[in-house]
Amino acid sequence: MISITNVHKAFGNHKVLENINLEVSKSQIFALIGPSGAGKSTLIRTINALEPINEGEIIVDGISIHDKKTNINAARTEIGFVFQSFNLYPFLTALQNVTIAPINVKKMDKAKAEKKGKELLSMLGLGSKFDSYPSQLSGGQQQRVAIARALAMDPKVMLFDEPTSALDPEMINEVLDAIRSLAKTGMTMIVVTHEMGFAKEICDQIVFMADGKIVEVAPPDKFFSNPSTERAKGFLSKVLNH
Fold first, then answer.
1. What is the CATH number of the domain that holds 219?
2. Which one, 42, 129, 143, 175, has the greatest CB density within 10 A?
3. What total of structural domains would you count in the chain?
4. 205 is in which domain, residue-wise?
5. DSSP string, 83-119
6. What is the sign of the dihedral through the CA atoms of 163, 168, 172 and 175?
7. pTM of the prediction?
8. Does the keyword Ligase belong to this entry (predicted)?
9. Which residues sit opposite 205 in a β-bridge?
10. What is the per-residue pLDDT across 168-227, written as a single tens digit (0 to 9) for each?
């Protein structure tokens, strides 16, 4: 479903991603973890070309994302992206935020888009918030609207860039529960996260990054109990003891 081959990315002389290779099969869930500055967010943003790459290739469902011949706007309709900050339109209601792209980009009938939008918001526990504006919602609720907005485009892949990092601690579980529900549907997902328990619980593979490189890829049980690299052991000793 997602194939990343020999990807390199630099900002000037600073190497942000170096020789990245990763294969994510359909319905798999991968977590990207690692210290700040490891390149996790940059990597996930290259998957839908929010960041260009200097070398390599990224293929999503058979489409070469960084090929100049690719219609990237069309390709992005297949790739849902949830940001750290919610990026909702403040002047639109929750339902309008969810339906605006299907109506305007996919030319979906308004009634059909609203029906689907209400179903998605209800699925994410927001059945009473259709007419609420972002300013009337908590951070966790806003992020769940953002997830519904991404799902409204019927993506084949969902990418989450630290979806809980802007939330107060008590709101984090709201968003993690939403992602758990999505996992049960068989959605292919890559999640950049600092929530180690969550990564261990729902992910098929843990991708540990440091210094712009993939240091280790392993199933959660193996990675958290017996990482194979000293770099990963050092990272886990700090994050699991605090």
1. 3.40.50.300
2. 143
3. 1
4. 2-240
5. -SS----TTS-HHHHHHHHHHHTS---HHHHHHHHHH
6. negative
7. 0.92
8. no
9. 30
10. 887 888 888 888 888 888 999 999 998 888 899 889 999 999 999 999 999 999 999 999
